[in-house]
TrEMBL record:
<dbReference type="InterPro" id="IPR036165">
    <property type="entry name" value="YefM-like_sf"/>
</dbReference>
<comment type="function">
    <text>Antitoxin component of a type II toxin-antitoxin (TA) system.</text>
</comment>
<dbReference type="Pfam" id="PF02604">
    <property type="entry name" value="PhdYeFM_antitox"/>
</dbReference>
<comment type="similarity">
    <text>Belongs to the phD/YefM antitoxin family.</text>
</comment>
<dbReference type="InterPro" id="IPR051405">
    <property type="entry name" value="phD/YefM_antitoxin"/>
</dbReference>
<protein>
    <recommendedName>
        <fullName>Antitoxin</fullName>
    </recommendedName>
</protein>
<dbReference type="InterPro" id="IPR006442">
    <property type="entry name" value="Antitoxin_Phd/YefM"/>
</dbReference>
Amino acid sequence: MTISEARGKLSALVDAAHREPVYLTRRDQAVAAIVDPEQLRHLLEDAEELADIRAVDAAWEGAEHLGEVPVPWDEVKRELGLA
């Protein structure tokens, strides 16, 4: 739906967004989306989790590239006096 069309139908679009995302377009290109806030919260949480997973993967790859051996978690806790 174009932005111009959306202006007069905002209330209905918000209602529709509870079922599925509503995409707004300009010159036949999606430029924005209206989404249910709960769905957006889940998407942001999932994106953060994925970013964490990618960071861990990158750290493991970096350690392998440098020939480093990770320190076991139990050893770290012992050294910090947490075990």
